[in-house]
Amino acid sequence: MTLPQDISSLQSKMSAAVREHWKAFLFEGILLVVLGFAAMIAPLIASLAFTIFLGWMFLISGVAGLAMTFWARQAPGFWWSLVSAALAVGAGIILLARPAQGVLTLTIVIGAYFLAEGVATIMYALEHRRELSGRWSWMLIAGLMDLLIAAIIIAGLPGSALWAIGLLVGINLLFGGATLIGVALAARNA
């Protein structure tokens, strides 16, 4: 079996590709960091931009889904595909027609997500504290932080809709950009 050799060959090719294009990774990382800071400075604008982007994604995917559903109408599950595509079109239209209300709705969804994720992470940490030995406490802390974020978002509604999505997107862009900058600099020096 030559699987390990194939993996090492693939790893060396990936390393060579990253080294060859390290400037592109650096540029993208810097751009993401700048966009992340911008989103954190103006979270309402970032929230609205994200909601409009999401609305277009729903609308485009829904229209494509409708076209594919009617193109393959003899396939099993036609009605479920039709309902799914119609819901995507409807969600897209609503988010594009009323982005401010969409921001509020998405903020509620994000608060609920952090609440569910926090409870699940805490339960996982408690369930596996024997197997995870020293790491389970970190998972417990992560779950508690998720609950704290959920509490801040939910307790602050509707006001938290003005900053929550934009701030979270900004933080994500900032860390993603910093990671790409780190990869680029490591590849340049390798």
Task: Describe the structure in brief.
By secondary structure, the protein is an all-alpha fold.
3D architecture notes:
Helices cover 85% and strands 0% of the residues. The longest helix is centred in the first third of the chain and has 29 residues, at 43-71. The two termini are 30 Å apart. It is mostly helical. It contains seven helices and no strands.
What gap, in angstroms, lies between the N and C termini? 30 Å
* Number of β-strand runs: 0
Oligomer type: single chain
Radius of gyration: 22 Å
Backbone structural class: mainly alpha
Outline type:
globular
Identify low-pLDDT runs. Answer: none
Strand content: under 5%
Largest sheet: none
Helix segment count? 7
- Averaging pLDDT over every residue, what do you get? 91
The helix content, as a percent range, equals over 70%
User: What is the element string, with H for helices and E for strands?
Assistant: HHHHHHH
Please write out the topology.
Blueprint: H1 3-20, H2 22-41, H3 43-71, H4 78-97, H5 99-127, H6 136-155, H7 164-189
Helix pairs in contact: 1-7, 2-3, 2-7, 3-4, 3-5, 3-7, 4-5, 5-6
List the keywords.
190 residues; mainly alpha; 85% helix
